[in-house]
């Protein structure tokens, strides 16, 4: 495992406040060919896959040791860690009728065993992080929607929001062909998403107070005030990009990475930002955000 430390401090003066953003650490976890990265909440394990999502690999962050979680059914695309540190992933198979069927399984990290959570079904399946846990949402069968707390996902141009199992449908952005990457704020009061060809937005659960944050992809909440996203540049898996820190009210945006490394596919785990690069080098980054006018440190 290779690591390096960068101090990347930017002062941006705004009409009402000013932020100083410092990258306090930037550690490289892989050397190449690692995409779709996800870090467990305790920071001990990383999962990733090659560009074709096969196989799904888990890496021990401390030792660098790896193991194959699954090598069947393109398991790398939507794999995530649950609250207990186990891995939930989707498998895709094409049957004789030429239709695609998607199933969901859980890999017990300690026991090294896989358990199927529900059998393959035709149609879209979403593994969604809620405020209390994971929900599995399919067109014909779903699981744990109420237990997951507040959950958001997308269906075409509709934003789907579930609060304790009660689902509502919104169309907060008109004139878009579809919505992607819905993400609920940690306090469970707002949702961020990307509208195709229009960029990233934040709104409340009624679709009101809609804020446009600009042309970005893959938004995820860093905390209740900030999000992390990648710049909108070509194919999201292999094109060059920067990772940006965005304030949810639209008042602040700043790149966190150098464009030379072509950073893509951000996610947040606790206080850590994880991303990979065009070359498949996974980084884990930590930040300090200071509000200069208030004289305090936000994160």
Would you mind describing this structure in some detail?
The chain is globular. The chain contains no helices and 29 strands. It has 299 residues and is mainly β. The strands form 7 sheets. Strands 1, 2, 3, 26, 27, 28 and 29 form a 7-stranded antiparallel beta sheet that branches. A 4-stranded antiparallel beta sheet has the order 4-5-6-7, with no helix packed on it.
Characteristics:
mainly beta, four-stranded antiparallel beta sheet, seven-stranded antiparallel beta sheet, about 300 residues, disordered N terminus
In summary, what is this structure?
The protein is an all-beta fold.
What overall form do the CA principal axes indicate? Answer: globular
Helix and strand content put the structural class at: mainly beta
Q: What's the number of extended β-strand segments?
A: 29
Order of helices and strands: EEEEEEEEEEEEEEEEEEEEEEEEEEEEE
As residue ranges, the low-confidence spans are 1-16, 235-239
Total helical segments:
0
Could you estimate the helical fraction of the residues in percent? under 10%
Approximate strand percentage: over 45%
Mean pLDDT: 90
For the CA atoms, what is the radius of gyration?
A: 19 Å
| Oligomeric grouping of the chains | single chain
Distance between the termini: 27 Å
Largest sheet: 7 strands, antiparallel
């Amino acid at each position: 495992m290779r690591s390096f430390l960068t101090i990347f401090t930017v002062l941006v003066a705004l009409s009402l406040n000013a932020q100083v953003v410092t990258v306090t650490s930037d550690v490289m976890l892989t050397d190449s060919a690692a995409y779709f990265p996800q870090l467990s909440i305790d920071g001990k394990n990383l999962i990733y896959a090659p560009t074709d999502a096969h196989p799904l690999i888990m890496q021990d962050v401390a030792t660098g040791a790896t193991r194959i979680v699954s090598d069947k059914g393109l398991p790398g695309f939507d794999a995530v860690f649950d609250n207990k540190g186990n891995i939930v992933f989707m498998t895709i198979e094409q049957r004789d009728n030429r239709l695609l069927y998607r199933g969901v399984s859980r890999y017990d990290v300690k026991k090294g065993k896989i358990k199927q959570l529900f059998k393959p079904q035709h149609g879209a399946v979403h593994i969604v992080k809620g405020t209390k846990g994971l929900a599995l949402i399919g067109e014909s069968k779903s699981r744990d929607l109420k237990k997951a707390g507040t959950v958001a996902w997308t269906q075409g141009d509709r934003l789907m929001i579930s609060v304790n199992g009660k689902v509502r449908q919104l169309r907060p952005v008109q004139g878009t062909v579809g919505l992607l990457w819905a993400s609920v704020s940690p306090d469970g009061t707002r949702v961020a998403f990307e509208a195709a060809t229009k960029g990233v937005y934040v709104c409340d659960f009624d679709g009101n107070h809609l804020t446009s944050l600009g042309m970005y992809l893959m938004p995820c909440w860093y905390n209740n005030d900030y999000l992390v996203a990648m710049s909108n540049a070509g194919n999201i898996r292999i094109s060059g990009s920067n990772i940006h820190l965005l304030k949810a009210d639209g008042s602040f945006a700043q790149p966190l990475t150098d464009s030379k490394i072509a950073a893509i596919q951000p996610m947040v785990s606790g206080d850590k930002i994880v991303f990979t690069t065009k070359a498949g080098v996974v980084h884990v980054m930590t930040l300090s955000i200071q509000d200069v006018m208030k004289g305090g440190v936000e994160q």
